[in-house]
Amino acid sequence: MRLPFVKTGLFFLLTLGGGxxxxxxxxxxxxxxxxxxxxxxxxxxxxxxxxxxxxxILKARAAVSVExxxxxxxxxxxxxxxxxxxxxxxxxxxxxxxxDVDNIRIPEEDQDKAGALAALIEREIPxxxxxxxxxxxxxxxxxxxxxxxxxxxxxxxxxxxxxxTEPAVxxxxxxxxxxxxxxxxxxxxxxxxxxxxxxxxxxxxxYLYADENTWYxxxxxxxxxxxxxxxxxxxxxxxxxxxxxxxxxxxxxxSGPPPKVITSTEPTELxxxxxxxxxxxxxxxxxxxxxxxxxxLLMDIGAQNYYVLLAGRWYTSKDLNGPxxxxxxxxLPTDFKAIPESSEVNTxxxxxxxxxxxxxxxxxxxxxxxAAVDPSKAxxxxxxxxxxxxxxxxxxxxxxxxxxxxxxxxxxxxxxAVDEAIWFVADNPSGSWAVAREVPAEIYSIPPESPLYYxxxxxIYKAEPDVVYVGYTPGYTNTYIYNTTVxxxxxxxxxxxxxxxxYPRYSTWxxxxxxxxxxxxxxxxxYSSGPFHFYMGGGGWYRGGWWGPVPYxxxxxxxxxxxNHGYRxxxxxxxxxxxxxxxxxxxxxxxxxxxxxxxxxPATAALADRSRSRVAGxxxxxxxTDRDGNIYRxxxxxxxxxxxxxxxxxxxxxxxxxxxxxxxxxxxxxxxxLPEQRxxxxxxxxxxxxxxxxxxxxxxxxxxxxxxxDMRARGNQRTSSYNxxxxxxxxxxx
Length: 734
Hints:
By secondary structure, the protein is of the alpha+beta class. It is built from nine helices and 45 strands. A hairpin with a 5-residue loop joins β42 and β43. α2 runs antiparallel to α9.
């Protein structure tokens, strides 16, 4: 028994920059610092310390040094800058482009020399087109409260939770069975499920496809279901084609009983335990976890409460059979925060407020995937089931098309559609469609109760005559920030369209969704053994839409691998196989989809070619700047050095007693704007004013610098772990 996970094609991993930079090992500073040769000497930029991310605009500070050919010693300073992020989520790197130096402080120079050096730095730094590892960016970005008011309307009501102590698989139906005749056949199909579920009217029997050699049969959809060898020829002809051949799977199979089939017509989650619950301790806590299940199921010994994590939401009960009630992450027992990162249940840490995993998952959910769209090459065709049919979009003055899988919105007499994270516009619902250069602001007020809420996470950043810069954050792929953690799905039930065709909507429940730091959300089934490998397969009237974190296609490589390695190892193997299979499809970047390849420009490749910066050899990546522009060097166990006019001096980083030198700042300024307020045309100038450099006498600079060092080390370690996994080391639960 195992729970396999597929490499999600929709979310969620932090990867920026076109795959042109693979971060180095942690000990090498992950491609930092970087340097650029100039006629006066050499400019060295140390790893940035990000401060804020709004849309695709990053604000950061960094230590910088200038090695002049006419000076014996380098001059160190601090810069604050703003830059666009060009992002590709499939390779975990980014490019910072269009960089504007907002402020510069050179504490060891007098004002005249500082001004000259500032002008030199401001001239040269923007030429770098700086690449940065996304894991470093994740770990070093300052944690901010990024909750959105709309996302606080996420539904936390529990689904129907079904426990089974025998092998079982859940077959979800989107409401009551919708049965249609198959053209050219006497067989009927249940269209509102991702599984191949057929009915033979001659015997009034239902047949469920499991794999190439296995069918189940039942007299009613509710069951009971049993393996059958006598499948009518008309039914057998409608089996979906296998996604991969047996030879490609390199499967490790073993013997096992056929799983029980459980069907459901309402939002349901299935939790399978292999017999009686087997409890194992969580080191350093008063928690136990159930080790013979692939669900995240724990018990608090003190209160004797069960906790189960479903789609990022915690539910608790005194009994496995319920009733289950939602519990906010902040109300979890304190021992949840003490779960070690090396624990077998470290997979729950993303849902425990205050943990690094939770903070990084929230930051991940704010990171946009960007692309440059060529309007002359981007086209769209929208399929409707009959004539276009529109209904009110609750909470707005907008209307939306209900009989299509493509989100089409009527606003102010024009039609706006989103296709694979690109906005299109037309004067009538059937087109012709052109790439949109702006969309009505009201679209971004669509509430979570609407099935089109996810489109509010697709943005147009800038429109030029020959290119439109667009992007989406993981909300488009059903990942939302709720309070201080991330959840999958809004929790609301959106009925699909049932007509000649079936168009399903986003679904939160029924697919055993779980989160991993590199792969985002994955889904799977509760059981597979020996010859029994359930396939999802649509065909017929099943048209597009979403069933969990990814479309049903392409999932089963991650599903098939991992059997017979134990429960936790089974997860690991399935995870790795799903990761590899998905990576070849660039599944984490919708702009690299087959449809979008012709629409988007390979902007990051050009950035790499134009970049004048290079990795600064063996130079240590151990120089930092505090918020006031003072420069520090980390000497490990020997403490910190501070840069002064007389060079490096040992420093215990005490709180400053006097105001530091004022930074050399660019004169123009502009108030900050929330992402929703940011103009879609990026202005020629960015805000250049820094927050006041008046020091806070209550600030503990030792804490600030040690925290910066720890975050940088964590980012380098994440980068190293990702690269090992990518190169074949596997992606383990740990």
